[in-house]
């Protein structure tokens, strides 16, 4: 079995070799060329992650990556605004996906100038066609004192493969709200990483909604690099059928006096499977850290399953930290309460489930997006509320 | 006859708590059920509302000509039974107005009345909220979430106002209320009191009955009614405590 799997991975690697050669031949930017080659080399050597790795224990991508994928022909020209140093900060060696992303990345840069407030959200939509592999790589720099909202929507309407990366820099006193919505078609495959650097007294407020796809994974890493930073790293995964979603999150308090809040919720029906792995690091010297983390899961079927692992690693004193995870069914007392108000049993259950999910969706301030997600949740419950 | 409870035996986890309880409520009447802790007051409320953890072992409950015990909790509610909870449950993520409109429309549908859209319902809710002096900002907030004890109890009475039950059971509605909140809640209940509905006040203390004056007072001890009388019985209890009724139960 093991030998077979290794072979499958090897086959899948080679399918990207020729497309990479074709593409790199057209890469004019020498720095970028070097960056891409180094990343591809890393990918060729290590391949896609397998369940032998602790971080990939529950998420097996071997079948998905061994499909025949056509590398998208999207433009890979680079914005002149982009400096190579920013790209170098990307941790392409995180895993095979991130390496492959850097090798093929189609870059897009959003820079919010100093002391500027942008009311209209920046909306980026990514969609892969059947059999197509896309590699969007977005860089957002919120300069000092700026304020903006980024909305990323992943909406493949067919069995495509999305391998995305987003690098976010929230500079001094800046305020960035980030909504990431993955609503791919039910047979799509999606891997994405979000890397965030939170600067002095900056605020990063993320909500990640995962509704679609067959196998999906989102890795998010938020690093505090200066005092006074604050981050909300929240999310929802709502799964049915045989969907599989995995969120791996890292919140890294490297410096003193930063605050992080994390609330992830899962609603799992049928034979779906969810994974939440959240690490919060409080490094040596990061005094005055305030970190709270929770992961709550609602299992609507006996065959649904979730593996949750919230972890706090504290190398310091004088911190305020709390974390917890729950996996369960609807609360009987809540259900009884709704029944005594005349709501029939299925409606009462749907309303509670809806409320559970809405706690995360209600965070979203982009009204049209919130309404759309609201409808998507109801649709998933087959309910009218 | 609105409610007729005959020789009711019921309990939880195999332990019998109600041991032959009788109670009759007619339209237009307010009944106070008093008694020491553990006498079965809350069990009676929960059994009438249909809580699934409680088991009725014998006896009958007839509500408006129907066998209440055969009905599911939601059917009871649509038939017109309402229980205000001692500890109202928080329902995060669901707004008060959303929840109340759903409940209102379920009942309207059941009664063959017109269902209301959100705008129409909002007008109705605004009117009803005046009964318990509730700020419309509470409509948008999640049901009971982050409400103070007093706000939760007012919200229960608001629900009663919206659902207009034939029989309202107020389970320890006075517990945890300061004097101002108690007054608002009691005045709300008084406004909802009509010649067509019946109200059961379940309470440990007499003070609620200064505001909502009952027609009848029933004292429970050991799972039975051990003493009955008019409003003056409540005052007697206040003075003498429950020891003498407990002794009477033995």
Kindly state the number of beta strands of chain A: 18
Number of helices, counting only DSSP H or I runs of 4 residues or more of chain B: 10
Name of the CATH homologous superfamily of one domain in chain B:
P-loop containing nucleotide triphosphate hydrolases
Low-confidence stretches of chain A: 1-9
If you average the pLDDT of chain B, what whole number results?
94
CATH architecture of one domain in chain B: 3-Layer(aba) Sandwich
Profile the largest sheet of chain B: 6 strands, mixed
Q: What letter string, H or E per element, gives the SSE order of chain B?
A: EEEHEEHEEHHHEHEHEHEEHH
Provide an overview of this structure.
The complex is a heterodimer of chains A (385) and B (250). Chain A is 25% helix and 38% strand. With 385 residues, chain A is an alpha/beta fold. In chain A, the strands form two sheets. In chain A, strands 1, 2, 4, 5, 7, 9, 11, 13, 15 and 17 form a ten-stranded parallel sheet that branches. An eight-stranded parallel sheet of chain A has the order 3-6-8-10-12-14-16-18, with helices on one face. With 250 residues, chain B is α/β, with parallel strands linked by helices. Helix content of chain B is 39%, strand content 29%. Chain B contains ten helices and twelve strands. In chain B, the strands form three sheets. In chain B, strands 6-9-10-3-11-12 form a six-stranded mixed sheet, with helices on both faces. In chain B, helix 6 runs parallel beside helix 7. Chain B is globular, with a radius of gyration of 18 Å. Classes of the chains: A alpha/beta (385), B alpha/beta (250). The A-B interface holds A 331-334, 336-345, 347-348, 351-352, 354-359, 362, 385 and B 49-53, 72-74, 76-78, 82-83, 85, 88-94, 98-99, 102-103, 106-107, 110, 142, 159, 163.
């Amino acid at each position: 079995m093991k030998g077979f799997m290794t072979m499958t991975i090897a086959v899948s690697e080679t399918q990207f070799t020729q497309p990479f050669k074709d593409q790199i031949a057209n890469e004019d930017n020498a720095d970028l060329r070097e960056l891409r080659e180094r990343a591809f080399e890393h990918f060729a050597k290590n391949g896609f992650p397998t369940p032998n790795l602790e971080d990939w224990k529950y998420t097996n991508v071997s079948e998905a990556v061994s499909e025949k994928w056509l590398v998208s022909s999207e433009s890979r020209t680079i914005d002149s605004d982009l400096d190579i140093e920013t790209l170098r900060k990307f941790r392409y060696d995180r895993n095979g996906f991130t390496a492959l992303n850097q090798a093929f990345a189609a870059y897009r840069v959003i820079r919010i100038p100093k002391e500027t407030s942008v009311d209209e959200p920046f909306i980026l939509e990514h969609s892969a066609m059947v059999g197509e592999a896309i590699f969007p790589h977005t860089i957002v720099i919120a300069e000092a004192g700026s304020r903006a909202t980024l909305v990323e929507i992943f909406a493949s309407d067919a069995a495509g493969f999305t391998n995305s990366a987003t690098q976010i820099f929230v500079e001094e006193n800046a305020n960035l709200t980030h909504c990431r919505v993955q609503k791919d078609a039910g047979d799509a495959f999606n891997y994405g990483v979000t890397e965030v650097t939170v600067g002095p007294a900056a605020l990063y407020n993320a909500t990640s909604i995962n509704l679609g796809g067959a196998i999906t994974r989102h890795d998010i890493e938020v690093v505090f690099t200066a005092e006074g930073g604050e981050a909300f790293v929240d999310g929802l995964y709502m799964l049915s059928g045989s969907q599989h979603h995995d969120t791996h999150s890292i919140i890294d308090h490297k410096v003193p006096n930063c605050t992080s809040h994390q609330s992830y919720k899962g609603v799992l029906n049928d034979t779906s499977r969810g994974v939440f792995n959240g690490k919060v690091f409080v490094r040596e010297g990061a005094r005055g850290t305030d970190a709270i983390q929770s992961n709550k899961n609602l299992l609507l079927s006996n065959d649904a399953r979730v593996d949750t692992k919230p972890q706090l690693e504290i190398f310091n004193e004088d911190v305020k930290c709390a974390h917890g995870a729950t996996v369960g069914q609807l609360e009987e007392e809540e259900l009884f309460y709704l029944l005594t108000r005349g709501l029939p049993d299925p409606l009462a259950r749907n309303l509670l489930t809806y409320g559970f999910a809405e706690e995360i969706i209600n965070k979203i301030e982009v009204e049209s997006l919130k309404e759309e997600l609201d409808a998507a949740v109801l649709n998933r419950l087959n309910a009218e509320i | 006859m609105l409610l007729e409870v005959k020789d009711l035996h019921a309990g939880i986890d195999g332990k019998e708590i109600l041991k032959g309880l009788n109670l009759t409520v007619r339209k237009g009447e307010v009944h106070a059920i008093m008694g020491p802790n553990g006498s079965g007051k809350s069990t009676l409320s929960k059994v009438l509302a249909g809580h699934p953890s409680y088991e009725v072992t014998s006896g009958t409950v007839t509500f408006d000509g129907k066998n209440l015990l055969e009905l599911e909790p939601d059917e009871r509610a649509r038939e017109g039974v309402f229980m205000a909870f001692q500890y109202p449950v928080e329902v995060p993520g669901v707004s008060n107005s959303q929840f109340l409109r759903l409940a209102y429309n379920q009942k309207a549908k059941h009664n063959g009345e017109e269902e209301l859209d959100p705008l129409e319902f909002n007008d109705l809710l605004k009117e009803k909220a005046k009964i318990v002096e509730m700020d419309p900002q509470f409509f948008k907030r999640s049901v009971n979430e982050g409400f103070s004890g007093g706000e939760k109890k007012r919200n229960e009475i608001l629900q009663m106002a919206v659902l207009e039950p034939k029989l309202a059971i107020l389970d320890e509605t006075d517990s945890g209320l300061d004097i101002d909140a108690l007054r608002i809640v009691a005045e709300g209940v008084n406004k909802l009191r009509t010649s067509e509905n019946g109200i059961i006040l379940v309470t440990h203390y007499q003070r609620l009955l200064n505001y909502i004056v009952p027609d009848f007072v029933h004292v429970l001890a050991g799972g039975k009614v051990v003493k009955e009388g008019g409003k003056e019985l409540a005052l007697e209890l206040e003075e003498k405590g429950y020891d003498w009724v407990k002794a009477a139960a033995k």
